Amino acid sequence: MAMTSSSQVARLLALVPYLQAHPDADLEQTAQVFHVPARQLVADLKVLWFCGLPGGMPGDLIEVDMDALAEGRIRLDNADFLSRPLRLSVEEAMSLIVALGAIQDMAGSDLAPAVSSARAKLEAVFGANHRIGVSLQAGEEAVRAALAGALGAGQTVRLTYHGASRGSTTHPVVEPASLATRDGYGYLTAWSRDRNDWRTYRLDRVSEVTLMSDPVGDHGEPPALGSGWLDDRPEAARVVVDVTPAGRWIVEYHPTVAVEERDDGITRVQLLVADPAWLRRLLLRLGPAVVRVDPPQAARSAIEAAREALDGQGRGGDVEDA
Description:
It is built from 10 helices and 14 strands. The chain is α+β, with helices and mostly antiparallel strands. The chain folds into 4 domains: 5-83; 90-126, no CATH class; 141-215, SH3 type barrels, CATH 2.30.30; 237-312, 2-Layer Sandwich (Alpha-Beta Plaits). The strands form 4 sheets. Strands 5, 6, 7, 8, 9 and 10 form a 6-stranded antiparallel beta sheet that branches. A 4-stranded antiparallel beta sheet has the order 12-13-11-14, with helices on one face. Strand 5 (155-162) and strand 6 form a beta hairpin. The longest helix has 17 residues, at 5-21. Pfam families: HTH_PafC (PF19187), WCX (PF25583), WYL (PF13280). It comes from Propioniciclava flava.
């Protein structure tokens, strides 16, 4: 299994309390507990050596006995601060409340009560009950529970999936790898047996999950979903729009991938478009300020809508393809 920085961070967070509860732990046995080779655990401990409280002075950092480690024993010291009550600023607490709100909609039945309880306690302490709302399109609870169960059991599933780009319902057979949220939506990353490649599925477009009898295979590390809505999204297309100075306002009002100011006064704007209807409205609003759209088919519905509007006014034929 490939080692990633995110998996190492999660392992380190669990490793410290484990070692505090098991002083003078055996290296090989601890490696087995965390399902990693002993050499990886040694690498983790060398990272842990540079972790601790702000300041970075010797008394601030976690201490690992390297002499004992060379003999196959793990001895940890100066990590007692992790057991102290956590003190949060208002900003930190609000960030946690928002994050817990997003997790709550994605959590399975085994995790949801704990997440809900933690969020309620933070809201009660910081008085945020009526100030923060989190809206997440994470699909039906039964769908999330079925996918979480398949992930835990390593089972293949068949989805009933309603794709937005093609407007059709498909039934892909996939091997679930992870569930995640981004930009207010829940996603499943899975290996598609039909496409023989990694695919990402929006959970609010999955209406049914059927468990299959065969287990998942080893396809390596799944691709990262990304950290923001300006990253390449599974359903997004990159569209280039050339506009005159009258249309340059879109750079100030809409997130862009790239902006190029040309010598002829034209601004070339690259956008990520996940909703064709949004692009159609944008192009209609820009009107004659649009000089070119690439790919051309991205502007087709806007052109047709403009022609229909002009036909209704008896002015057909005034709209040219961009």
